[in-house]
Amino acid sequence: MNSIILPLLVIVRLTILDAFRRRILWVLFILTVVVVGISGIGFERLVTLAREHGSSELVIQLGVSQMLIVVAFMFSFILAMTAAFIGAPAVAADIESGVLLAILARPIGRSTFLVGRWLGLALVAGSYALASGLLEILAMKLASGYAPPDPLGAAGAIALQAVLVLTLTVLFSTRLPSIAGGAITVVLFGMCWIAGVLGGLGTYLKADLLEQVAVASRFLFPTDGVWRAAIFALEPQVVIAVASDSGRTNAQLAANPFYASAGPSTAYLAWIAAWFVIVLGLAVLSFRRREL
Amino acid sequence: MTSATSSGLSSAPAIETHELSKRFGRTTVLAGLSMRVELGEVFGFLGPNGAGKTTSVKLLLGLTAATSGSGLVLGAPIGDRETRRRIGYLPELFRYQSWLRAREVLRLHTELARLPANRRTAEVDAALETVGLADRANDPVGTFSKGMQQRLGLGAALLGAPDLVFLDEPTSALDPVGRTEVRQIIRAARDRGVTIFLNSHLLSEVELVCDRVAVVNRGRVVASGTLDELLGEQAVVLRVSQLSAEGRARLEAFGTLETDPADPERITIRPIDPARIPEVVAAIVHAGGLVHAVAQGRETLEERFLELLGAAADPEGSAAAHRVTDDGGRR
Known about the structure:
The structure holds two protein chains of two kinds. Chain A is 84% helix and 0% strand. Chain A is an all-alpha fold. Chain A is globular and about 70 Å long. In chain A, 44% of the residues are buried. By secondary structure, chain B is an alpha/beta fold. In chain B, the strands form three sheets. A six-stranded mixed β-sheet of chain B has the order 6-7-8-3-9-10, with helices on both faces. A four-stranded antiparallel β-sheet of chain B has the order 2-1-4-5. A four-stranded antiparallel β-sheet of chain B has the order 12-13-11-14, with helices on one face. In chain B, helix 3 (102-112) crosses helix 4 and helix 9 (245-251) runs antiparallel to helix 10 (277-286). The interface between A and B is medium-sized, with 24 and 30 residues.
C-alpha cells in the first residue's frame, strides 16, 4: 500500500508546490481581492442609492440576491477558465519537457502519477474556488447586509464546477498539447451552459429536442447542472415563493437561466460522483497507453 | 555467446534481452534487440542518430512497452516496479521543473525512489558534491545552463547507490572539462560496483570508459564485444627498406606479416604485444634492413564504427560486421 500512497503524496505535494512557486495562486489571490473589493464597493453604492430613493428592504434584498447570482455566474466562468488552464498542462507539460521520463523511471505507476496530479490540482482549484466564493459572499453581506440562504452550498457548487472542468482537462492533457486541451474544455464548458439555457427555452416552448440536448449535456459534462445547484443555493426562498405564486408554470420559470427552483437530486449527485470515476478512469487508461 | 560469458563472468546478467522489438504504427524502431550486459561493467551502446538507442533504454526501463520479445533487468521482468528502486536513469535532453531548486529536485528523486528518510539529506548532499553543484544547491533549476541540468540529472541518476544506471547521452551538453569530469564520475561508480549502460554517439567517450560495447543500427545490434574484440588486435606498421627475404622470414616469429604489393616497403605485423616492438626493430637492423618509420596501432573506434554501419547498410557486401558479432548481432 505504501508503494502507492507515498508516491501519490509526493506528486500531490509537488503539484501544489508547483502552483505556489509558479505564482499562479498569488496572482489569483491578488486578482480575487481586487474583484471582491470592487464588487463590494459597487454593491455598497447601489444599496445606498436605493435606500436614498426610498426602496423597501425587501426589494433591495431581492435586487442584491439576483445581482449576486449574475456575479456568481461570471465568477464561475472565470474559475472554470482558470481550472482549465491549470489542468491543461497537468501531464502534457511534463511530457513536452521530458521530465516525466525521469519521474516514471522511478518506482511509481503511471496511474499513481496521474491521480496525484489530479488530486493536487483539484485541491488547489477547489479550495481556491471555495475560498474566493465565500469571500465574495462575505463582501456582499458586509456591503448590503444580505446573505444568500446557503453560502457554503453555493461556493461548494462553484468549486465543484471548477473541479469538473479541471478533471476533463486532465483527461485531454494525456493526449493533447496544453493549449489545445485547455481551449477545448473552455469551449465545451460554454457550450454546455448554452445548452442549459436553450434547454430552458425548449421547456418553455415545448421543443423536445432542445430539452433533450440540455439533459444530455448535463450528463456528459455536468457543469451546467452544478451551476443550477449554485443558483438554488443563492436563491432566496422569497424569490422562489414569489415566482411560484406569479402564475407562471415551471416550464416558463425554467426559461430563465439565472433561476432554479430546486437543488440537485441525490441521483444527479451520484451521477456526478460516477462521472469523476469514469473520466479519471479514461484519463488513466489513456495515459497508460500513451507513448512517451 | 557473448565474450563476457565465455570469459567466465557471473551468469546472472544486469540486463538480458531476447528479440525485443518496437514498432510505432508501420515504423519499426527496434527490429529485434538481443543482448546481455554483465553486472558491474560499463556497457556502451553505440549507434547513429535514429538507430533506436533511446527507444531501447525506454524499453528496458518499462517506459514504453515492447511490441514483441522479452527481457530481464536485474533478474526481474522488464518494467518491474520494485526493481526500479535499484535503477538510476538520466534521460536525454530534458528540462527539470524550472521552479524547483537543485536540492529539491534531488530530494524529490530520493522520495520517489523511496530511500529511507534518514538517508535522504546525506544522499542529496553527496550527489550535489559528486556532480559539482554543491555551491548551486539552492538555486532554481531555471537558472541553470543545459550542462548544469545534465550534471543535476546525473546526480539524480546516481542517488541511493543504484545497482544499474542508464545514462542517455550524458555529456551531450557538456564542454570538454565537463566531459572529463563525467568520465571520472562514471569510472568511480563502476569502481563501486554499479553497472552502467551508456547510450552515446560520442565514440571517444565510449572508447575511454566502456568495458564492452554494442553497436546498434536500424534497430539491431550489428556487433558487440570488448573494445579489443571490436577493434581487432594490436599491430605494428613499419616502413622498411633493404630487408632480405631471410630477414622478412625472421619477422614472422613476432606475428603474421601483411605486406601491400603496391607498397612493398610497408610491413604490418599482427597480432603483436606492443612491448616487443623494439625487438622487431632490432631484428630488422640485425638482418641488414633500414627502418624508416614505426607506428603502433589498430583501427580507431570511429573507423570500425563506420565500417560496421557500412556493412549493415550492405549486409552481403562485407563480412566485416560478423567479425566480432555475438549471437545478437547475427540474428
